[in-house]
Amino acid sequence: MKKFSLTKRIRPMVYSFIVGSHLFSATAKAHNNLQETTFQQQHQKISGTITDRLGPLPGVTINIKGTSTTTISDYNGQYAITANPNTTLIFSFMGFKTVEIEVDSQKIVNVQLKEDATALQEVKINAGYYSVKESERTGSITRITTKDIETQPVTNVLATMQGRMAGINIVQSTGTPGGGFDIQIRGINSLRTEGNTPLYIIDGMPYPSQSLGNGEVSSGVLPKESSPLNSINPSDIESIEVLKDADATAIYGSRGANGVVLISTKKGNAGTTKFNVSAYTSIGVIANKLKVLNTQQYLAMRQEAFVNDGITQHQDDAYDINGTWSQTRNTNWQKELIGGTSYIQNAQTSVSGGSENTQFMLGGTYRDESTVTRDNGHYSKGAVHSSMNHKTSDDSFHLNFSADYTSDKNTLPGMDLSRLAYTLAPNAPALYDNAGNLNWEEGTFENPLGYLEGTYLSLNNNLIANAMIVYKFYPGFEFKTNVGFNDTKFSENRTLPSTMYNPIYNSTSLDSQIFNNNSSRSSWIVEPQLNWVGKLGEAEINVLVGTTFQSQKQQLMAVYGAGFPSNTLIHSLTAASNVIVINDDRSEYKYSAFFTRVNLNYKDRYVVNLTARRDGSSRFGPGNRFANFGAIGAAWLFSKEAFINSNFLSFGKFRTSYGLTGNDQIGDYQYLDTYSVTSNVYDGGIGLQPTRLFNPHFGWETNKKMEAALELGFFKDRIFLSTAWFQNRSSNQLIGIPLSGTTGFSSVQANLEASVQNTGYEIELHTVNLTMKDFKWTTALNFTAPKNKLLNFPGLEGSVYANTFVIGESISIQKLYHYTGIDPVNGAYNFKDFNGDGQLTSADRKSILDTSPKFYGGLGNNLTYKNWNLDFLLQFVKQEAANELLYFPVAGTFSNQPTAVLNHFPLTNNLDTVQQYTSGANGTVFTAQNYYTQSDALNTNASYVRLKSASLTYSIPSVWSKGFSAKVYLQGQNLFTLTKYSGVDPETKSIYYLPPLRQFTLGIQVGF
After folding, report:
1. What is the greatest pairwise CA distance in the chain?
2. How many CB atoms lie under 10 A from the CB of residue 841?
3. Residue partners of 1004: CB distance under 8 A and separation at least 6
């Protein structure tokens, strides 16, 4: 946390505005170079201005009818084109009605385009290996674009999707810079946690979502290993499509079981060269503080605990109550430790443009983010994005190239202080002494800022490049090849120097420790494809065949070092007296496939889509290395039938799909009998020990997907409703099968005939509520009601998974003891002994808590008035979880507590909800606390409605800006949350790591 300097924070935006103004002035003095295209029979130059109801409209395509001659309107809506008097000009723009105007003798043709909601059905949707019109797609694909992303001050691509897509549940794991997100697309399919991540494709290149981090290195700093998705720069994204059902995902075969996320980066457009500069500054704070005991309440709790235990003389180490510490000091530790302000500065610039045949874009982004804690932690990221598209004049050859390079550095304290902010005694001493040094209060105080002496540092460099080459060698035929490359280098370390410990322990550099991790991953892909489009009568046929060759190499090396002659040498492992290799792993993954797609469109009403793929993966045994996957999808556009003649129904489509996808997310070499180096020395040498048994029958997980959906548009699509029902059944689960201890192994990796089913309903509603001359109001709602169930699990009751899963229940459940109240005699929690054996064992865990969401979604509204735009998104989730008492020790011990413990035994009329206090000496109460944290007593409603984002944007009118366009915006994230959950945050549901921050952003975007 640093001191706030308004001048310093807004300086990047001021500079951007000055640069934009200077360039605008130069442009205004120069001749406005509008793109002109010369027609063979050149007679006259036609120019004009294109507007909509709000003003000039840039990016409109103007085409001379019957020719390939086109131009595009500039930022002021102006255009110029050369044509003869007998031609007709066609003006077209997405979301607006196309206009045709005959030139005749006109030299100035001004046009005002009118909005056409139904035109949105003609939008091309990226489906991966092919694109399809929104109206004609047979699969389930949901999409967001750059307008949903550009004002969000986030660094992880998943944050841009949260609450905006049906069927996609995204949860932020921490508010710490560089933290990650968890994503589920239509539920959990695999019994293995690591087997549920979707496939990510960036501009045609698969992007691994598995972290290169090591959990022992980042432990206590981040809840999970560093997320590789942080290397994707949201500012460079043009659109994100998510493929969900079998029809959309089966063409990806074994990699599509958990859905596919397609990310398309920004490309240049034909026209004059455009410069865009944007910058924003954000501030972030903790959105909610937990209600904990003040000093008076805390000391009363402690005093009562000692009385209950029959202790009249406080122990020597009970510094909080024996008089060593002040009895009146009252510190808000949440404010002191995590109550600071984080700052974000983000600046981006790009240049784009080109001719009709060649377009380009080059851009760069820099981001710097600080923390809310008392340290100099920073997360900084630099990114460069480039793209080039070229086609020949006869449109026979296309080359599309894109490359992105990202480098980020994350410096954080050696431990997240959140838990200490909630549990530290309110009368604990000051953090610093009178000399400004860390205060250890003569050895009685474990100063939490001591942990800041330790550091966590991660460095990540990522390059992803892709090229698509297309050659149209015969009418209807095209050959294309997709070539991609990805290279990632990641390193991290966490230091634990002796200076972080209380001086009373007399620690020296010999006690200092370091955890190091260095890893890398590189992969390439080549996908030759042949596509044919033709007609057979009134049917249009599209046939695609292709093959995939992919290779990936990965190296992981994690090392622990301890015992240094000096703390200055803590980063030198050669200086450590004790070095232990945590992990040394090298692996290679090879993948190949053959795929095909046949699409039949009859009369633009009846659409059938067939996809098939044969996959081969090196992750499976020789006998199961290849598998077949496929799907069929169909759509009926009944609104185009002759018997449908209604001004009320503008669009109607029924679609359905069924198919089979797979999953090979099991890691490399899992089917082999493997060995590792043992630390034991025999006869002066180090040997090997077996770590895994050979299983040649190790094979694929499979996922059968079924969907039926209805899409309806009313009143020219001013009201558009999409409803879908889905069912996914995942079987042949890859899991560890328990073995007898006599084998020397606890389990063997194998396929288990267990089945997991996900069903649910999805609703998406888009409405144009009001359209007036200067005002427009639109609403977007998405709603998902999922249901997860374990259908079967052979031998479950006799397996080690008996206490984890229950047939017929969700695989997200927790089996708990049933709480029956507080014993009126001993004041301890009571629980039901179901089998009556007189003791509580795992057999008594009969109560079930399902933590999976019952439903979730988002409600967004967009209001435009003249040059003002207000956009906000409400995110909602219906769920249950354990309350905050799960994370606290027994009430009465040397730890602060939530105010909920004030309702404790003994209270009259059974109003007590917490057992009697104890200092730790009451074994009965102490044991009851352990059962309590594993019981249904903690179950609570953790549902919430959150104002996830809100932005207010002002677009500077073109009459003011003349040579350039500009807009200024104010944006907020996590502005408020409505919930009955009494913990810190209903999304993260933890006190160990920072919750998502509330952020306020001021930004500017300039184009010229």
Report:
1. 107
2. 11
3. 13, 16, 17, 278, 279, 280, 966, 967, 968, 969
Q: Predicted confidence band at 802 (pLDDT cuts at 50, 70, 90)?
A: confident
Name the nearest CA neighbour of 373 among 419, 409, 408, 407: 419
How long is the chain? 1008
Q: Would you call 598 helix, strand, or coil by DSSP?
A: strand
- Round to whole Å and give the CA distance between 50 and 73: 7
* Cβ neighbours, 10 Å, residue 746: 12
- Contact (CB, 8 A) for 180 and 173: yes
User: How high is the pLDDT of residue 904?
Assistant: 94
Residues 320, 323, 326, 328: is their CA dihedral positive or negative?
Answer: positive
Under 8 Å between Cβ of 783 and 854 = no
909: left (phi over 0), alpha (psi -120 to 50) or beta: left
Residue whose C-alpha is closest to residue 563's, from 576, 580, 581: 576
Angle ∠(321,322,323) on CA atoms, nearest 5: 95
Residue-wise pLDDT tens digits, 623-638:
788 889 999 999 999 9
Say how far apart CA 659 and CA 496 lie, in whole Å: 52
Residue 987 buriedness (CB in 10 A; 0-12 / 13-18 / 19+) = buried
Query: Hey, what amino acid is at 312?
Result: T
Side-chain half-sphere CA neighbours of 248 within 13 A: 28
Dist CA 211 CA 219 (whole Å):
14
Q: Pseudo-torsion of CA 147, 153, 154, 159, nearest 10°?
A: -50
Nearest Cα neighbor of 151 from 766, 947, 778, 950 is 950
Q: Which pair of structure tokens corresponds to residue 996?
A: 């998502």
What pairs with residue 474 in β-bridges? Answer: 477
Task: For residue 397, give the nearest of 484, 468, 482 by alpha carbon.
Answer: 468
Among 426, 532, 484, residue whose Cα is nearest residue 203: 484
Give, for 411, the enclosing helix (H) or strand (E): strand 397-413
Amino acid at 797: E
Q: How far apart are CA 494 and CA 514, in angstroms?
A: 6
Hunting for tokens 């092919």 — which residue is that?
130
- Cα-to-chain-centroid distance, residue 108: 49
CA distances (Å), origin 61, targets 71, 121, 217, 311, 962? 6, 18, 54, 85, 21
Of the candidates 493, 488, 480, 426, the residue with the CA atom closest to the CA atom of residue 208? 488
Cα distances (Å, whole numbers) of residue 217 to 182, 197, 513, 896: 20, 23, 11, 29
Model confidence at 671: pLDDT above 60: yes
Instruction: Inform me whether the pLDDT recorded for 322 exceeds 80.
Output: yes
pLDDT digits (tens, 9 = 90+) for 725-750: 999 999 988 887 777 767 777 777 78
Q: In Å, how far are 75, 262, 647, 908 from 731, measured between CA atoms?
A: 54, 26, 47, 53
